[in-house]
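FORM 12-B: Structure-to-Sequence Request
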């Protein structure tokens, strides 16, 4: 099969497309013929050796795939050859075949094409876990989403709307904000030209209930300052690079909470709750309540270009690598 190989941590440009042996599914694994692999910011970080997981030696990056099961390892129950499935994995996804443990595999909902499925689970499951389990978002509350045209950002708009919230989307260009509006945002803020705190407070009538922050850097503090009494500030990621330090008098004065979100650990520690969330997402999708958006498709040979879209802050919606 063909696969993208990262010989060692370093620049994205050093990735190579190689012919390698097909993986063999071990006990408890299924072999997936990959149709599409979603591109996520952790892929950008892992290639450069900047993520919390560091594979040893050469490896294939790619954290989520969708495709068709072509073989079963020993002891696999509940899946069959020919099933349409998606999987979230630490790495290995930018390849024509992936062997994944069944615990990481879910069925693709009816009516969802495999490209969408390959770019759905990581961001949507993160958004649902963040908003439902961690923020306890209620219908009618207001959510401020930073980096709202990115993968986690757009999924957060979609999930928050499905939960009956009002969404204020913040992003860095007019084109990105147009994407957020198309995804259902009720109001938008360009945080490179507007006062994020003042605008978010004005748009929410005094303070937002929940902040979704997968960006970090200089936007986090003004967003925290825009929360109202009892607000919840969700710490999801640091795509901007800097991990911000915030004054701890802010949560005291606002009676608000700074809440960590680590979806990967949630999956490992609370598998039953994770399964419930997956079922929830599938049900919402099948009912037409979610509208995942793919903005760019790249063939496997152009995976470097796909990763660069995220690394260079150009993402507007989800990027997928297709096997063609
Ligand atoms: N905690 C968890 O469980 C969890 C799960 C999934 C992902 N994450 C994290 O969430 C973050 C976002 O992931 P994603 O896949 O949604 O990424 P993405 O699609 O690339 O979106 C990130 C957004 O961050 C903004 N940004 C600001 N400065 C940036 C910079 N220097 N470079 C790139 N983007 C920049 C961009 O929006 P603007 O240009 O509009 O500012 C961009 O749209 C990552 O840090 C990832 O590791 C965490």
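FORM 12-B RESPONSE
SEQUENCE OUT:
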């Amino acid at each position: 099969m063909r696969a993208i190989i990262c010989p060692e941590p370093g620049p994205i440009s050093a990735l190579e497309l190689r012919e390698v042996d097909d993986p063999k599914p071990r006990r408890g694994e299924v072999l997936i013929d990959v149709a599409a692999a979603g591109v996520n910011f952790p892929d950008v970080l892992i290639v450069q050796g900047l993520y919390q997981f560091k594979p040893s030696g050469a490896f294939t990056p790619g954290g989520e795939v969708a495709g068709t099961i072509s073989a079963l390892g020993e002891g696999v129950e509940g899946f069959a050859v020919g099933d349409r499935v998606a999987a979230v994995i630490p790495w290995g996804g930018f390849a024509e075949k992936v062997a994944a443990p069944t615990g990481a595999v879910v069925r693709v909902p009816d009516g969802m094409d495999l490209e969408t499925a390959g770019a759905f689970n990581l961001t949507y499951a993160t958004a649902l876990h963040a908003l439902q389990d961690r923020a306890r978002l209620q219908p009618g509350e207001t959510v401020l989403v930073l980096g709202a045209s990115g993968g986690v950002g757009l999924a957060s708009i979609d999930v928050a709307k499905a939960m009956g919230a009002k969404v204020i989307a913040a992003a860095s260009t007019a084109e990105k904000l147009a994407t957020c509006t198309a995804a259902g945002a009720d109001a938008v803020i360009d945080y490179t030209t507007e006062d994020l705190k003042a605008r978010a407070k004005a748009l929410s009538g005094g303070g937002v209930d929940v902040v979704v922050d997968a960006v970090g850097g200089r936007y986090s503090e003004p967003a925290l300052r825009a929360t109202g009494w009892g607000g919840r500030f969700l710490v999801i990621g640091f795509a901007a690079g800097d991990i911000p330090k915030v004054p701890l008098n802010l949560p005291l004065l606002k009676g608000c909470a700074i809440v960590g979100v680590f979806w990967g650990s949630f999956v490992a520690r609370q598998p039953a709750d994770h399964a419930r969330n997956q079922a929830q997402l599938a049900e919402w999708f099948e009912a037409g309540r979610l509208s995942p958006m793919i903005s760019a498709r790249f063939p496997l040979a152009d995976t470097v270009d796909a990763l660069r879209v995220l690394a260079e802050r150009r993402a507007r919606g989800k990027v997928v690598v297709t096997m063609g």
